[in-house]
Amino acid sequence: MHASPILVTGATGKTGRRLLNHLARRGQAARSASRRGDGGHVVFDWHNPATFAPALDGARAIYLVPPAFVEDPSDVVAAFLAQARGSGVESVVALSSMGVAFPHEPQDSGRRNVERAVSESGLRWTILRPTGFAQNFSEGFLLPAIRQAGAVASATGTGAVAFVDADDIAGVAACALTEPGHAHATHVITGPRALSFGEAADAIAKAAGRAVVHHALPREGMAQLLQQAGMPADYLEMILRDQDAIREGYGADVTDTVARVTDRPARDFDDFAQAAADVWAVR
Ligand SMILES: NC(=O)c1ccc[n+]([C@@H]2O[C@H](COP(=O)([O-])OP(=O)(O)OC[C@H]3O[C@@H](n4cnc5c(N)ncnc54)[C@H](OP(=O)(O)O)[C@@H]3O)[C@@H](O)[C@H]2O)c1
Predict the structure, then answer these.
(1) pLDDT of 136-157, one tens digit each?
(2) Most distant pair of Cα atoms in the chain: their distance
(3) Which atom of ligand 1 is nearest to the CA of 66?
(4) Could you give the domains of the chain?
């Protein structure tokens, strides 16, 4: 156990919040970062470099969640990691995405550039490439439509995804941050079985005791929906690329990373849905 803290960016998000619990259980000092700076978080904003130094001060490692809705934040990530190295940080565990390895991904995509910035940072690095989070349905962008309309929309057709529980991603991150054996490793993180969005909707319906259906939209329909939600055009294109890949069958891979790294089996989507059922209740 180290006295110098691990800086957890994205600490109010799906994985960062859970990582703080994992680190606390290990007795590992952590510093949580958020743009708001309330609730014990240090102020940290990717768009305000003046917040970097106080967040990094005395930290020995970083959990890095790139800024939301920015297609290519690699310049700011590289600048931040250079500053981190200068301030004595030794290692970084960065949250990326399984989508980086889809054949649809351009060589110079923002996500690939971020991974390059991490692996060329001079720090001991680990990259996490999770598939779609189960919590997108219970805490993320899919929740409002499930609550209000019993609907999940995607352009993934019948393509399957081994949705992963954010707590399992956090568990892998905690191991990578505190145990040896993860230097210069890229971990592809999935749940234990692949299911289509329709099958995920069925599992949620069963757990919540209400009708929940999947609307399999054409690509253009999905683009319109994301545009209406205010998503930047280049980020939207990345989401649609991922959905194209899933529709074409590239998203169904299952890995044993969670069990292998954490010594605990990856959580099944049905278990996740049972535990989260209350959030989908009709109010
Ligand atoms: N969701 C998925 O299915 C999925 C799958 C694979 C990979 N990923 C990757 O995981 C990452 C995050 O996932 P998510 O979309 O589910 O979000 P999330 O981690 O649940 O939430 C985003 C976090 O980022 C922080 N944040 C946003 N903008 C920031 C800024 N300008 N400066 C500092 N912090 C900022 C937010 O904190 P505050 O608001 O408190 O500042 C929040 O804690 C993304 O890079 C995404 O590509 C997601």
Answers:
(1) 999 989 999 999 999 999 999 9
(2) 54
(3) 45
(4) 6-280 (3.40.50.720)
